[in-house]
Amino acid sequence: MDINKTPQKIRSLEFGRFVAAILVVLHHATLIPQEARFLGYQPLHSFFFPGHMGVEFFFVLSGFIIMHAHADDLGRPERLGGYLWRRISRIFVPYWIVLAVLVPMYLLTGMGTADKRDWSYIAMSAFLVPQTSQPVLGVAWTLTHEVLFYAIFALCILSRRLLPIMMGVWISLILVNQYVWNLPFPGSFLLSLYNVLFILGIGCAWLLRRVTVPRAGLVLALGLAVVVTSWVLELSMQVRWDAQRFLFGASSVLIILGMAELERSGRLRVPSWLVLGGAASYGIYLVHAVVQSLILNATFRTAVGGMVPDWALFAALVVVPVAVGLAFHRVAEKPAIALFRALRPGHLAVWSRPRLLKGSA
Question: What's the pTM?
Fold first, then answer.
């Protein structure tokens, strides 16, 4: 088997994205109701609170996907424009659609805190500029880390030699900041322990391009075992914050390596309908917390609030946001990204020209 013949889109990891999105939905369905104006406590005995590990998986997977998709672009500056255009369309276009609905809600209804109606704060949130507080769309704090990673990887497209140097220096400074000298913002953002997860993902992709992962099924099983162990440990409050990041990061690495190798070797096949869930995972992530808040506000501003059993409310906080996210992907996200990419200026399309010239020769 040629280890370099990994599919451009690894279907099993698309399914992994969907599972990660569901985990985050479960986490917020546990976290948001604990506000005093809602339940005042976490439903179902906080069992799904560790679902935030979906964020760690997203970060590792993001590093993997960028390296997997753009490894051949490293050291080729002429491909930088195409890379940036694709990253902007993927992250910002769906995000701006959600903001176009959310911001007027804050401005016109008085919902949310006062900063949600501050134009400088809104502008910085719209362009994912890091701030000391969360963006207008709370879950977009993760996107600020994504944008930082994309920018650093862009420098490596300019020069291939920068990749090992920058990643090595970055991870070293992150560990120093975590355990030796804690910098204030913006240093705390640039050197957040979360950023290590992107580097782990790059390492996964680099490894898969060079070797065959031995005993891939065992590697996957070990990754899932770490997830279960980490979940139980967090529920018992026995794991430090930094240890959680490393545990969830390690489990994500093992799961990605195991699933990718099993699929590459033909031992794992994922149905198309599960892959569609992965394609909609970003849309689900963007809208789920907003939908959950709307459900809770609609429930507890009426007499219905005290009549709905916890399990029924929790189910609604999971099923409805996922359904809305799937619809958002199909109706808004997918066509908007396609339109934006179709508008790409000619001088940014340089990476597609060699294929056109080759085909016309």
Answer: 0.92
